[in-house]
Design goal:
- This protein has a single domain, classed as Nuclear Transport Factor 2, Chain: A, CATH 3.10.450.
- The radius of gyration is 16 Å and the shape is globular.
- With 145 residues, it is of the alpha+beta class.
- Strands 2-1-8-7-4-3 form a 6-stranded mixed beta sheet. Strands 5-6 form a two-stranded antiparallel sheet.
- It contains 3 helices and 8 strands, in the order αββαββββββα.
């Protein structure tokens, strides 16, 4: 059986190169939690999360800076990098492609179980991403002066 580190590294490769296979790397009851978006995907809905990001950012690359594994928990410090080339659904609506590049810091927490992932909690800097995509320009209008 693959080590927990290998399971985590493989998940990143699959997310970038084979998003349709993403779901198969999770346990039956596993989840992917997109923390900044406020959405937790369970079961077969996990494939939907991979589709969202591969459509919005078809050239996304995750640069892994540090990876720590202690028994059944893995923590990865990384950056998410790419170009916004497709629609990005978020809680407030859909952001159409901006054509802008982004380089966003992120920390992911994993719970590998029996050769698969039972939990993947993704904590990327959503505000930084939205600023780099140029969509926070209207935020100033709602701030108190």
């Amino acid at each position: 059986m693959a080590s927990n580190e290998e399971i985590i590294r493989d998940l990143y490769v699959v997310a970038e190169k084979e998003p349709k296979k993403f779901r198969s790397l999770f346990t039956q009851n596993g989840h992917f939690w997109d923390v900044p978006a406020g959405v937790k995907y369970h079961g077969d809905d996990i494939a939907h999360a991979a589709d969202i990001y591969s459509t919005a950012f078809p050239d996304m690359h995750r640069a892994l800076d540090e990876l720590y594994v202690d028994r059944d928990v893995g923590v990865v410090q990384l950056s998410r990098n790419g170009t916004h080339q497709g629609d990005l659904p978020i809680g407030l609506g859909t952001i159409p492609a901006t054509g802008k590049e982004f380089h966003v810091p992120c920390v992911d927490v994993f719970r590998p179980e029996d050769g698969k992932v039972s939990a993947f909690d993704c904590y990327y800097a959503g505000t930084i991403m939205l600023a780099q995509l140029g969509v926070l320009a209207n935020l100033e209008a709602s701030l108190k002066k």
